[in-house]
Design goal:
Elements: E1 5-10, E2 15-22, E3 27-37, E4 40-41, H1 43-53, E5 57-62, H2 72-88, E6 92-96, H3 100-111, H4 115-136, E7 142-143
Parallel strand pairs: 1-5, 5-6
Antiparallel strand pairs: 1-2, 2-3, 3-4, 6-7
């Protein structure tokens, strides 16, 4: 059994949802949120997560429109993934996240959580869904290099 650990990210400019999981169990769980700062992601917080979990790879949700075209967040997510690669020298994988936010938003709304708590839950659960898709659908994985120099 391969126990490789992966960190999953749902990139946002204000908050980045984080998930962790092991390939052996093929199960993702929430690891919280990292704040987006004016200058970009809180790299110190991300570095602490990388040091704590010592992942073999990083998984980033790639937002696209329903027709597969890029949207405003696509280039920002690609840039975030390239910066992860440059900082940590770990393989970066992309997972199509087109329906992730919709499904997670419905789930969070159904929990009855307070509105102030919903955003953090949404970001974390979106990262869980992204990482879980990476485990569940290996054919959907693409390495960052395959995304070309887009963004």
């Amino acid at each position: 059994m391969n126990a490789q650990t992966y960190l999953g990210f749902d990139y946002g400019t204000k908050s980045i949802g984080v998930a962790v999981g092991r390939l052996a169990s093929a199960r993702a769980e929430g690891a919280g949120c990292v704040a987006g700062l004016r200058s970009g992601p809180d790299w110190d917080a991300i570095s602490r997560l990388v040091q704590l979990w010592q992942p073999q790879g990083l998984v980033v949700g790639l937002p696209r429109n329903m027709d597969g075209t890029d949207n405003a967040m696509t280039a920002l997510s690609l840039r975030f993934g390239r910066r992860l690669d440059g900082r940590y020298h770990l393989p970066v994988y992309w997972v199509d996240e087109r329906l992730t936010t919709v499904a997670v938003r419905e789930h969070v709304r159904d929990t009855g959580a307070r509105k102030t708590r919903r955003k953090a839950m949404l970001d974390t659960l979106a990262a869980v869904a992204i990482l879980q898709a990476f485990f569940d659908e290996p054919q959907q994985r693409t390495r960052w290099q395959e995304q070309g120099k887009a963004g």
